[in-house]
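Hey,
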Amino acid sequence: MDIKFKYSNVYETHLNPDARPLTHTEIVTKIATMEAFWKEYYTNIENAYKEVTGLSFKRDSVICYVNSGKTFSDPLSLEIEDDKDMQDNLVHELIHILLTDNHSSFEAKQLELYKKFPEEVFTTKIHVIVHAIHLLVAQKLFPERVDRIVNYSVLRAYRKSWDIVKEMSAQAVVDSVFLNK
């Protein structure tokens, strides 16, 4: 999948109205860094997603907006921060896109998995799957970054999803949703 990294002042202003202004150098440097990362690793990352889940992207391209403070998958947006954090967040957000593109193929098994932790909020539930995939992909491609990825977020829902992944094992989570879809 092709990713076009870009900055939009209009998007930035609406997304982060109180954010510090980004310099032209920051923007250009981070875009170049992310383009180089994606160019070097996209085939390996897409192949790892396929190997781990059996899924492929349904789209040929996506725009990724770099910005001063928010990271999420729709529209694909990355906060400008440490290079490795941006790269790991890209892998994470692309998992959301991969799952969204293919949702109908595993929805029933996903709902079965969610029944194992009914007291958890939806953010925790969806991130059990996302984090399990991310962990398996990172172990294949970036094993030196696994601890960094697991410990990145301090939000309760994300921490809880990592606890569930550790308890169940990433492979068991993935197998429960994607094995023999």
